[in-house]
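Re: your question about DUF3040 domain-containing protein

S., sorry for the slow reply, the queue was backed up all week. Below is exactly what I fed in.
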Amino acid sequence: MPLSEEELRLLEQMERALVEEDPKFASTLRGTTLRQSARRKAILAGVVFVGGVVMLMTGAIAEVPVVGILGFVVMLVSATIGLTVLRGQRGVTGGEAARPTGSTSRGGFTVIEGGRTGRTRRQRGSSQKHGSFMDRMEERWRRRREDNGF
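Result:
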């Protein structure tokens, strides 16, 4: 259920009062956007990946397999984290973090209005008009056999 106009007005007044009373605390509440946080994590993962490469090469050159294996594990973990963070950012556009459709920004704070975001789940019937995967494969197989004269 979305907030009423009166509730939104009261919330905005409380936010303004908080900013006037304690600007440092208000800026702490604002925090960083998801994009900035993800960028920071991706850069850190890249630096750790390079460190893993250095460990791997050091282990190979010094003929110490344990160091090389640890370097490879560090590379693997950092690459996984970095790619996960970057994949999560594909849907984010502009300089702001992704927001639900019904949200608005007021004075640096995000107000999320209730209700559905307008996205609806895909109906099963619409995907069934082409049949299941196995049905399509069987139909292709049947057509090939008929075309080849079997």
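The helical segments are 5-21, 23-30, 34-61, 65-88, 124-127, 133-147. The chain has one domain: 5-121.

Happy to talk it through on Thursday.
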